[in-house]
Amino acid sequence: MAQRAARSSWAHISRPRPAARLRLICLPAAGGGASRYRDWPAHLPDGVEVVSVQLPGRENRFDEQPIDSMDQLVGSLLDGLAGNLIAPFALFGHSMGALIAFELARRLRSLGGMAPVHLFASGCRAPHLPSRSPDRHTLPDREFIAAIEELGGIPPELLAESQFLDAMLPALRSDCTLVETYVAGPQAPLSCPVSAFGGLRDEEVLPEDVRAWSRHTTGPFRVHLLPGDHFFVNSARSDLLRLLVSELGSAGADPSGATRVAR
Question: For the whole prediction, is pTM greater than 0.85?
Answer without folding.
Answer: yes
